[in-house]
Amino acid sequence: MFLELALCICTQITPEDYFSISYVSSCSISPDSKFVSWTEGRWDEELDRRNYDIWISQTEDGVPLRLTFDEANDGSMQWGNTDAWLYFSSRRGSKGDDLPRNGKKQIWRVKPDGTRLMAVTRLAGGVEDWKISADGTLMYYTVSDETQIDDEWKSLRQDHDDIEYGHGIVEYSEIWALDLMTWKQKKLWDENKVIVDFAPSFDGKKIATVTTPDTRLITNEGWSDIGVYDIETKETILLDDALWREHAPSPYGWVESPDWSSDGSRLLFAVDFDGFPRNMYVATFADARTVIHRVERRDEVSLGSAPVWIPNSHDLLYIAEQGTSRPLLKVSDVGYSQQGKTTELITNNLVCWDFSVGKDTKQIAAVVGSSVTPSSVVLASDSSNMVTVVANPNTHINNWELPTIQTVSWTAKDGTVIEGVLELPKGFTVGKDAPLPMYVDLHGGPTSARTAALSISIYGRGLFSSDGWAVFSPNYRGSTGYGDKFLTDLVGRENDIEVQDILDGVDELVEKGFADPDKLAVGGWSNGGYLTNCLIAKTDRFKAASSGAGVFDQTMQWSIEDTPGHVVNYAMGLPWEVPGEFRRMSPLFEADKITTPTIIHVGEGDARVPAEQSKALFRALHDYLDVPTHLVIYPDTGHGLSKMSHRKAKMEWDKAWFNRWVLGK
Question: What is the CATH number of domain 400-661?
């Protein structure tokens, strides 16, 4: 059946309604496809956050059953080789020494009927990453051990160990195997490196490892390696990285998500680049040699998820970003520098967020959404594009006044077609009704995109449209889902080409009668906050702005963020190599042109776009330029707002700010 909801007598969506929505984030299907489990997040006012529990249903005429009910954010589900046990990670208990309920991440398991919940690990420091072996007899897990680098300063650091150092002390990783029959454990891997990700082969003889020199994110950018560790010989062979280093447009790629084919002949992995296409690679092992090649994608799509092998085959699956949709694609016969045809398994304008494949049956479970429903758990068929709904925890939205959602397009001055998502209040008719106040919602990334799926978001979608606004989400140059050239057109042109794309889109919607040119607002988070800062420095047409965790000065951003390769890629050089480009990219140097009343949001502990950026913007506007502004700093918060109270504050501040400066209330 196609995923739809029948709309009925409707009520306006409120911020309180937002906190009633369950968030389905991941799914896992049992090997025999008898069961499918999923994680469901619900807001808890007492915890002041969204808490995740695990649910399950039989795939044939099942009724959803809640497996866990704790304050521990249960998740990361994995099945053994049968449906006997479902394994998951959990941070149960409070911080202390009460193992396994010490607040650290431990691995637990439970029967599909919800009985016999038990801890699998009881480690004082918890586990970091973990995998169940293909035969279900072992659990591999990683832990870390703090080590002093053996250099000339080692003794001095030891003498003054109460001081924090920039480097010299590293938590190196170890891989252990726990026998799930005897409950004995054994250390398998202990090298002076940090494990970012790993994957044991199906026969248990090898482990693919993605490693970096230390735990800082900066060393993932160009310093990450992928290797194959032989458990018997204890030797690691690193794969030749020329394809994603020397021959790549940027050396700052993140290696991630290794996955073995069932026969062990092929290793699949991905490499992610800020500003450049994320790619899939396959290493084929045959005749004492290794052949590595890049898996080709359709011209118009971007890689939207980690790719995985279909069990007992050389076919792979991945979620593609394709315009404002996210289909699930299958690529057949991949290996030996070759590949077969690509087919769509989940499409029909459904938006796929996660998927899982049954090891014995190849049945696919997925988390999908559409323009009229939030994410649901479905079963998909390899032979058709239809899906069957297993669970939809948000049927209560049937009587909400949902917006109408459409994909819109316009042509940039250089002839490039740009797309975006337009939300309109239910019942609005262009040409018949008066143009609407319009909020321009700018996505982050910028290597990301807005989809045409229903979204009730603290960043504007769903809520503003229910309140009588048009909400416009442009997928400007640099967005994913429109081909590699569209993505890389932004490199060397930040604060330029994408800003014009956005303004051209606004012009189009004003001209067509959707938007009132005298009632425009703009906002975004992360790169959306940066673009908000760029736009208000370029034009005064927006009556109000909401800048969330946005960059103000790119040189400062390179200096203090945790992933500086992002800035280097877009600037096409380091600050001392291209200082003029860093200045041109920075709205700081055009701040004297800003007149737009601006509300500024940022997390106190944001490592990605540190709060100093927002504080600098506030200083410029409030102390020197006399622009109406407020700075809202959220304590004990990183790059995203995870606390319920913080999200409520942001929604209320933005609504009040736009009511005052756009609607004159």
Answer: 3.40.50.1820
Q: How many CB atoms lie within 10 A of CB 644?
A: 17
Predicted TM-score (pTM) of the model is: 0.94
DSSP state for residue 326 in the 8-state scheme = B
**What phi and psi, each to the nearest 5 degrees, are found at residue 329?**
-115, 150
Name the nearest CA neighbour of 85 among 25, 135, 136: 136
- Maximal C-alpha separation, the chain: 78
Half-sphere exposure of 386 (CA within 13 A, CB side): 5
Give CA–CA dist 244/64, Å, rounded: 44
CA distance 21 to 373: 11
Look up tokens 């506030």; give the residue.
618
First to last CA, the chain: 46
pLDDT means per 10 residues in the chain (665 residues)? 40 87 96 97 95 96 93 95 97 87 96 96 96 97 91 90 88 96 96 96 97 93 96 96 95 96 97 95 92 93 96 97 95 95 90 96 95 92 78 92 95 95 95 96 96 93 94 98 96 98 98 98 98 98 98 98 96 98 98 98 97 98 98 97 97 97 95
The pair of structure tokens assigned to 467 is: 């309140």
Strands 225-230 and 206-212: antiparallel
CB 463 within 8 A of CB 457: yes
Distance CA 135, CA 129 (A): 19
CA distances from 303 to 241, 338, 491, 569 (A): 20, 18, 19, 19
Q: How far apart are CA 108 and CA 119, in angstroms?
A: 4
648/104 Cα distance (integer angstroms): 29
State residue 372 phi and psi, 5-degree precision.
-125, 5
Q: Identify residue 203 by its one-letter amino acid code.
A: D
Nearest CA-CA partner of 165 in 221, 216, 222, 220: 216
Give the three-state DSSP class for 658.
Answer: helix
Quick one: how far is CA 639 from the chain centroid?
Answer: 13
CB 275 within 8 A of CB 448: no
Beta-ladder partners of 54: 39
Distance CA 127, CA 100 (A): 11
R_g of the chain computed on alpha carbons: 25
Q: Quick check: 438 and 519 in contact, CB under 8 A?
A: yes
Distance CA 321, CA 350 (A): 12
What residue segments make up the domains of the chain, in order of their start?
301-396, 400-661
> Is 245:222 a contact under the CB 8 Å cutoff?
yes
Q: Is 655 helix (H, G, I), strand (E, B) or coil?
A: helix
Give the H or E element holding residue 656.
helix 644-661
d(CA 548, CA 523) in angstroms, rounded, equals: 7
Q: Which one, of 321, 351, 573, lies nearest residue 452 by Cα?
A: 351
∠ Cα 612 614 617 (to 5°): 110
Q: Give whole-number Cα distances, 443 to 446, 450, 459, in Å.
A: 7, 7, 9
Rounded Cα gap, residues 320 and 376, in angstroms: 18
